[in-house]
Design brief:
Largest sheet: 6 strands, mixed
Strand order of the largest sheet: 3-6-7-9-10-12
Number of helices: 6
Shape: globular
Helix content: 25-40%
Structural class: alpha+beta
Number of domains: 1
Order of helices and strands: EEHHEEEEEEHEEHEHEH
Number of strands: 12
Length: about 190
């Protein structure tokens, strides 16, 4: 048994099994680990943005067991990640889909498109990283392309084959887990390479 401060105990066998489920499968986890690596080697400073939340009610059954029972988003969040790379502002959204055939445009919200448009207007680098879980493939898709497809309103999704043609496959590894800055170099710093 493993004891926790809230007095709950979990049998070790369940704890170990649960720790390995989905390990490394989350796009967010892969990006966070990649960003930690990039920060450590001083290649870039990129962080996940916290979601602004207003806590309304907290339940205190015991001093050591405080629990948030009611909270609301203060404002719509912009995109998931931002920072600086090679002297340029970098801002991007990360999305996963279980679909084998397309990426649903409903996964991107209007305020995120508007934010990416502002990033581009001010000379920043903007993109969306999309993982197709069924194929274990992750693509970097330029913000300009994503904005155009979003604004066309012709369909509710972007076909997988179209994203493969217009996106850039991100190589996976151990350190970093996702070599997405190599793709950023290829797409946005071609003339300097």
């Amino acid at each position: 048994m493993i004891g926790y401060p809230n007095k709950k105990s979990i049998p070790v066998s369940h704890q170990v099994r649960d720790n390995y489920m989905g390990r490394g499968m989350s796009l967010e986890d892969d990006l966070n680990k990649s960003n930690e690596y990039y920060l450590e080697i001083e290649r870039a400073v990129i962080h996940k943005k916290p979601i602004p939340v207003q806590i309304v009610r907290v339940d205190y059954p015991q001093r050591s067991a405080a629990k948030i029972v009611e909270a609301y988003y203060k404002t719509p969040s912009t995109t998931d990640y931002n920072g600086i790379y090679r002297g340029k502002a970098i801002d991007f959204e990360a999305k996963e889909t279980k679909s084998k055939t397309s990426f649903p445009l409903s996964n991107i919200h209007p305020h995120q498109i508007k934010h990416l448009m502002r990033v581009l207007k001010h000379g920043g680098i903007g993109f969306v990283i999309i993982r197709f879980c069924a194929y274990d493939e992750t693509y970097l898709v330029d913000a300009q392309y994503m904005i155009q497809r979003y604004q066309q309103n012709e369909s509710k999704s972007i076909p997988y084959a179209e994203l493969k043609d217009n996106g850039f496959l991100i190589k996976r590894g151990f350190t970093p887990r996702l070599h997405y800055l190599d793709v950023v170099d290829q797409c946005y710093f071609k003339e300097e390479a």
